[in-house]
Write a structure and sequence with these properties.
heterodimer; A: 222 residues; mainly alpha; 9 helices; B: 210 residues; four-stranded antiparallel sheet; 5 helices
Amino acid sequence: MSASVWAAVWLSVKVAAWCTVLATPVAVPLGYLLARKRFVGRSALALLLFVPLVLPPVVTGFMLLSVFRPEGLLGALGVPFTFAACVVASFVVSLPLYTLAVRQTFEAVDPKYEEVARTLGESPMRAFWRVTLPLALPGVLAGATLSFARALGEFGATAVLAGNVEGETRTIALAVYTLMETPGGDTDARSLVLASLLVCGAAVLGYEWLRRRHRARLELPG
Amino acid sequence: MTPFFDMDARFERQSLSLQTDARHLAIRGRSGIGKSRLLRIVAGLLDATGRLRVGTRIFFDEDTRLPPNARRAALVPQDAVLFPHLDVRGNLGFARGVETSAIEDVAAWLELTDLLARAPRHLSGGEKQRVALGRALLSQPELLLLDEPFTALDRPLRARLAKELHERCAAKGIATLVVSHDDAGTPHLTGEVYTLDERGLQRATEDPVD
C-alpha cells in the first residue's frame, strides 16, 4: 500500500473525529430541545436540519463555498481548500444525522425520571446531568458513531469546498475518485475501498451495539 | 391562624379545595378520578389555577409558582420510577447531602440491606416501592407525596411499614399526603381522610380505624 493511501485514510479519520467532536456540543443540546421543549420556531428548526440531509451534498458544498469564499460572509477565515474546509463540509452534512439520532434518544427517555429527580430537590440542569443524560448516553454515543461514519464517507460537499489536495484535503472518497481516473490506480483504489469498508463496518457495528445498550438501559425491548 | 394545608385550586372542571391543620392526609377515590394528578399538582409537575400553601410556604398562587425542586415535596410514584442507571444504594442516596449511615439505616428499616448493590430491573414490585419510599424519605422533604405506596407489599409488611413510616414522619415533622384507591383502604395511616370525585375534594364522613 502506498503512502498516499495511508495519508488519505489517516486524513479521513482525522476529519471525521474533529467533525464529531465539534458537532457533539451542538447536536446534544439541539436534539434535547427538539425532543423536550416547545418553542417558537421549533418546526422551522427541525425542517432546516433536514435540508443538508436531503440536498445533494454538492449543492450543500456550493452553498458553503459561497459563504466561505474570499468575498463571502465568512471569507476572512480562509477556509476553502484547507483541512478546515474538510471538517466544515463534513460537519454540515453529518450534523443533521447526529442531531436527529440524539433527538430520538431523548424522546425515548421517559420524562418521569426527570420529574421525580425534581421532586427530590434537583434543578432542571442537575436533573439533566444526573438523570436524563446518563440514561441517554449510549444513544448519544450511537449518534456520534453514526455522525463519524457519515463524515468519513463525505464526498460532494468536501470536493466543492475543500478541493482535492493530496495530504491536505484528499480524503478516502476523493482519493478513490482520483485513482479511478489514474491509469494503474486500481490497486490503491481497492486498498482504499477495503479500508473504508473496514472503518465504516466497525462504526456501524459499534452503532448497533450502543443502540442495544441504550434500549437495555431503558428496559425497552430490542 | 391560617391552616397548615391551604389549597383552593382548580384543574379543568375539578375543584381542589382543602383547608386543614392536619399534617397527615389520605385521599381516596376511584381510579381515573385524578388522584395521581392531584399529587403532580402539589409536587409542581403540573400547573393548576388557584393557590396552594403548605405550612408557611406558597407553592403557587396567581403571581408565583415555586419550582418542584424548591417545594421539598418528595414524590413516591405508584410505579416507583427508580433511576435505571443507578443501583439501590444510588437510588436511596440520590438526593444531595445524604449520608451513608442514613442510607444504611433506612435500608435496614425497609429490609433492603442485602439488595443495596442490585439494579432496579432485578427487584420485585414491592422492593421497588420500598426503594422509592426510602429515596423520598432520605431527600429530607417537608412533605411526602405517596401514590398508593404499599400496594405491592404483602399484608404484614404493609402494616408494619405504614405504622413506622407514620412514626418516622411524625418524629421529623414531615407532612404526608397519601392517595389510594377506594378499595385499597388506608387503615394504617392516621390523619384526615378525604374523597375525590368529579366535583372535587370532600371530607370523608368516617375516619379510618387506626
